[in-house]
Write a structure and sequence with these properties.
The chain has 274 residues and is mostly helical. It contains ten helices and no strands.
Length: 274
Amino acid sequence: MTGTTPGRAPQLVQERRAAGGALYLRQWWTLTVRGLLTVLRNGEFVFAFIAPAFVAVCFYIPLRKVMDSSPNMDYATFLTPIILLMSISFAATSAAMRSAFDVKEGINARFRVLPMPGAVPFLSRQATNTVLLVVSLVCSGIACLLIGWRPSGGVLGTIGLFGVALLIGALLSLLSDGVGLVAGSPEATSQMLGLPTMILGMVSTGFVPEAQFPEWIRGFARNQPISQFVSVMRAADSPLPLTWSTVQASVWWSVGLAIAAGALLVKGSRKVAG
């Protein structure tokens, strides 16, 4: 019969923890690579450039002359925030579809029988979502440059512009991941996310100024979340400093998105575990 000396016990515990941590890291990496390969096979990286280019062409070309005729209007600069937001909404929708597909195909159920913490699949999905989000932002930035946008806020302003977009994209990806887990159906997920995104995007100050809307809908167009995010991004991409009055509404909308994402992820995790 063999025993362990008291002095060796703490060392063995540390070695087992290190081995377990290395195993979990390998599992996370394997699942992340799997997710990225799925994104690559589905052509989502290609569509990450097509989507913002499509938005830029569909709105910039027909409206440029009309909008640029207005005083102090550079329509390429005006349009840039909404192009970035539409691009990250595509990334978020893709995140929800992948999450729902894993539920539908029983992949998450298979993970439960493996010696794997429940956080590993979640973290791997978020890593995949982050890569697609960054690629989408880079591609949308290129599309904006091609239509004539030039940074007006200097280095810090440009960092602020893309930083706000990245933060919103991360929140939307978390929310979408939760929606996919709860819905469990790619078809239902597409309907739950596609219609609200389209309505909010079109009825926002991202494409046209508030004054261009009928008076009865201006309040909604001005105060809804996409318009508020656009306002912050435009302020960041300008020589003027950001003020609390400009970012306040966006901060509260972001807090609301974070709370909703947390609630959906908890509910979805319980559904998968059940």
